[in-house]
Design brief:
Blueprint: H1 3-29, E1 32-36, E2 40-44, E3 53-58, E4 62-69, E5 72-77, E6 80-85, E7 89-93, H2 105-115, E8 127-128, E9 131-132, H3 134-144, H4 153-156, E10 161-163, E11 173-177, E12 183-191, E13 194-197, E14 206-209, H5 213-218, E15 219-224
Antiparallel strand pairs: 1-4, 1-7, 2-3, 4-5, 5-6, 8-9, 10-15, 11-12, 11-15, 12-13, 13-14
Length: about 230
């Protein structure tokens, strides 16, 4: 083989190796998202089934994947960074599609405003940024948007239009009943089975699932203030 052919062969080999390396990097850096296939998928604090459950994500929810680690996907779900089992997550290339719920601009504005007060302490009778009770929080958010609601939880569930739980949109008010059927708690629906609310004495405004745990058992319906 001539010197020229040897140099050409070496050059081609180098190009092939570099191309393979670049393809590998591109594949690793490409964006992926997952679709939950379980009824409720546990978001774990660490990539193990024995770690703490941070949230439970409803079937059909799309989540952007930060990175893949073995049989786990590292994701960020409403501010919680955790891990989902790939056994119950369909992985696809690209960005997660927009939320399936039809979102009104005013309803989404309520959710965005509610996010600003996450961490605010619960104060009985409170309806200001220094402290909220459940209905005071909802009252304050809508008042900030120019809408005056009734003040207590049961009465707020007479404002606006009735909406079934399976048709909730971000910004809707969600009501929760006690054992006697009296509405004694409300929150703001934030999408994907989650609400933002001010829970009770000693706690703070936060995200909470309405499709799992105690709140799923108490949820009654929603009220839509903005059409």
């Amino acid at each position: 083989m001539s010197f020229f052919r040897k140099v050409t062969a070496i050059f081609v080999a180098v190009v092939i190796v570099l191309s393979m390396a670049l393809c590998t990097v591109s594949a690793e850096e490409s964006k992926h998202y997952g679709i939950v296939t379980a009824s409720l998928l546990n978001l774990r604090q660490a990539p193990t089934t024995s770690s703490k459950i941070l949230a439970q994500i409803p079937n059909g929810t799309s989540v952007n994947i930060i990175k893949l680690e073995g049989n786990w996907a590292n994701v960020n779900y409403y501010g919680s960074n955790g891990y989902l089992s790939l056994d119950y997550l369909k992985v696809l290339a690209g960005e997660a599609p927009s939320r399936s719920e039809a979102v009104s601009s005013k309803g989404q504005a309520i959710v965005e405003l509610a996010k600003k007060y996450i961490g605010t302490p619960y104060v009985y009778g409170g309806s200001s940024p220094s402290g909220f009770d459940c209905s005071g929080f909802v009252y304050y958010l809508y008042k900030s948007m120019g809408v005056t609601l009734n003040r207590v939880a049961a009465d707020q569930m007479t404002n606006g239009k009735w909406v079934p739980l399976n048709a909730l949109q971000p910004g809707d008010i969600v009501g929760f009943a006690n054992k006697s059927g009296y509405i004694n708690h409300v929150g703001i629906y934030a999408g994907n089975g989650m609400m933002i609310h001010s829970p009770q004495t000693g706690e703070f405004v936060r995200y909470e699932s309405i499709v799992t745990g105690n709140y799923s058992l108490r949820a009654t319906c929603g009220r839509r203030i903005f059409n």
